[in-house]
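seq:
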Amino acid sequence: RVAKENPEEKVQGQAAMAIAMLLRGLGDAGDVVERRLTRLREAIIKAAEVKVGEVTVGQLAEDE
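struct:
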């Protein structure tokens, strides 16, 4: 909901990263992987430089 409704792109990107991390636990089915990649791209585009603790969203995306 946050990823869709929040007007701030950085918040949308952070939410997309969180969703991608949650989708990782759902397995490797084609549709899940596609949704994950879409969310990872969105996170990188909208919030790559945003810090989450000691790392950035971009660094988290690299690890995914």
